[in-house]
Amino acid sequence: MHLFWIRTFRTAWGRALVLLTLFAMPIAANATLPIQSWHLPNGARVLFVENRALPMLDVSVDFPAGYSRDTAALSGCANMTVSMMQLGAGDLSEDTIAARFADIGAQISSRFDADRAGYSVRTLSSERERDQAIGLLASILQKPTFPEKVFERERGRLIAAITESNTKPETIAERAFYSAVYGSHPYGLRASGEIDTLRKLSTEDLRRFYGQWYRSDWAIVAIMGDVSHDDANAIAMRLTADLPRATGDVPALPPVAPLEKPVERDIDHPATQSHILVGQPGIARKDPDYFSLFVGNYILGGGGFASRIMDEVRQKRALAYSAYSYFAPLARAGVFQIGLQTRRDQAREALKVVRDTLSRFVESGPTEAELDAAKQNLIGGFPLRIDSNRKIHEYLAVIGFYDLPLDYLDEFVQRISEVTVDQVKDAFQRRIHPDRMVTVVVGGTDGQK
Fold first, then answer.
1. Do residues 275 and 443 make contact, with C-beta atoms less than 8 angstroms apart?
2. Whole-number pLDDT of residue 20
3. Quick one: which of 93, 116, 126, 132 has the fewest CB in 10 Å?
């Protein structure tokens, strides 16, 4: 879940009600989330929120090991590495690991995107269950064995899945879009890898990747739930103690180059629906225009039926069931994308409507009425975004990984409320370029011009 989609709550009284619901504990002054943060002697960073209301514990550890750390020659290595880690660790087989998690009713899941890779565990906080869950996670993170037979099986499954996916118009559109937006930048690589590159992979490649990127100094440990500070510290140490140390900071990804000219790709496909994607490189996670673009995009295409794109494409013309736009901020510039599906014979009309709507919005910005409505919806929906330990834990991990301020959620309400029409207009005019967009249409246009 991206923090770009966090919704916020306007008043101090509203925040107080949320806190009373979520936390049966004293709260630090002016803190929506009483986040504690510290570094372990081995360099790992810990973020912790104590909540004694439920006998539950959520723990995750993330590393800068997403698919942007792959190379074009061995794309898919990052994904296979994190996937294989829970399929054999220390002296435990994949079946033993799965059985022991099931024995205590704990849930384990991996997460993987362009920037990060890691694991998350949800368990009861009672000593037996917690100790076993953390012990298993520690083995997965620190002692993966990458067994050869399991690797061959999983690689075969992935290749079969990619082969099938490659026939689908939505996959074809996405691959063409990311290739055109990012070119040779690592964000343009396929997260799963390509069939040819996967066939070249070996378990030795996975071990090499693991050793390079899974370092204690680069680990972000997020802990949420029914434990004390001392317990949280001990858990974090146990999860990272045997990881190798790094010799420096995380290597920076290269900047994303802006598009210099429009790119159009019309790809034939027998599908009855044309899949349309329009976009460009967007913004990084810490971009100073973040809030202006966040609010503006809600009005443009992120607010469902309240957005302009949906109104123009669906409500007024019935050209598509759904149409959207979003920013996906990453360590470097993630995509800005507009997307929809429509009948082949309507593809060009729908595309023109999208382009015209975007151009008008960039030129004129939102109205005051649109801005006020967007703020009310974004602010009013905040409680639903932090109404469970699991959701709070996800935000905690993102705040830690992208080194956002610990009071980020405290300030979110205020930053949203301060956005003006002029700020939205200015940010979109500087950052979004309708005349330099990637446009991908998959499914054919039936000869339309």
1. yes
2. 29
3. 126
Q: pTM of the predicted model, to two decimals?
A: 0.90
CATH architecture of 263-442: 2-Layer Sandwich (3.30)
Ranges for all domains in the chain classified under CATH 3.30.830.10 = 36-240, 263-442
Per-residue pLDDT, 308: 97
Predicted pLDDT at 32? 60
Distance, CA of 81 to CA of 365 (rounded, Å): 45
pLDDT tens digit string along 177-212? 999 999 999 999 999 999 999 999 999 999 999 999
Q: Find the helix or strand (DSSP H, E) in which 431 lies.
A: helix 421-431
Ranges of residues in the chain whose predicted pLDDT is under 70: 1-32, 382-383, 386, 444-449
Domain 36-240 CATH assignment equals 3.40.50.2000: no
Q: Which helix (H) or strand (E) holds 210?
A: helix 203-213
Residue with tokens 């440990």: 221
Residue 215 DSSP SS3: coil
What token pair was written down for 8?
Answer: 């916020």
pLDDT value at residue 411: 86
Give one DSSP letter per residue of 365-418, joined into a string.
---HHHHHHHHHHHHHTHHHHTSSHHHHHHHHHHHHHTT--TTHHHHHHHHHHH
Residues 6+ apart with CB under 8 A from 152: none
Q: Please report, for residues 248, 260, 343, the alpha-carbon distance to residue 403 in angstroms, rounded to integers and kept in the order given.
A: 17, 31, 44
Between CA 300 and CA 288 the distance in angstroms is 19
pLDDT at 48: 97
Q: Residue 25 has what pLDDT?
A: 33
Give the CA count within 13 Å in the CB-facing half-sphere of 390: 10
